[in-house]
Specification:
Largest sheet: none
Radius of gyration: 18 Å
Shape: globular
Oligomer: single chain
Order of helices and strands: HHHHH
Number of strands: 0
Distance between the termini: 13 Å
Number of domains: 1
Helix content: 55-70%
Strand content: under 5%
């Protein structure tokens, strides 16, 4: 499938509306040597959600963004994927909304080029 910047932006906007529960990280305090290898109970740390495909694709986009983008581009991409608006991000970076949008669009184009490249 050939992705366009419009497709990617539409997906990200959709992704921000999903109710995806975040799981707490397991700490060493949660682990006990006597129960670490206990297979009689269900694991609470790993569970599938109904949004597995969406999470997988977003992780792919984030990986590409981290690989191809600058630190600033990645931060902007991540913040948008977490539901922040261009206006909110412009206040964080002390840049104009136009400039934030330009940076974001540049990274989206890089991501599309990467996704559409045939290996």
């Amino acid at each position: 499938m050939n992705y366009t910047p419009k497709d990617i932006k539409k997906f990200i906007k959709y992704y921000t509306t999903l109710d995806i529960p975040y799981q707490e990280e397991v700490t060493s305090d949660d682990l006990d040597i006597n129960t670490f290898f206990d297979i009689s109970k269900d694991s609470e740390h790993y569970s599938l959600t109904v949004h597995t495909d969406e999470v997988t694709f977003m992780n792919r986009l984030l990986t590409i963004a981290e690989t191809l983008g600058t630190d600033r581009e990645c931060c902007i991409f991540y913040l948008i994927s977490e539901g922040k608006t261009i206006k909110e991000i412009s206040k964080i970076f002390l840049l104009s909304e136009v400039w934030i949008r330009k940076i974001y669009n540049n990274l989206i184009q890089k991501i599309c080029d990467s996704l559409n490249t045939k290996i």
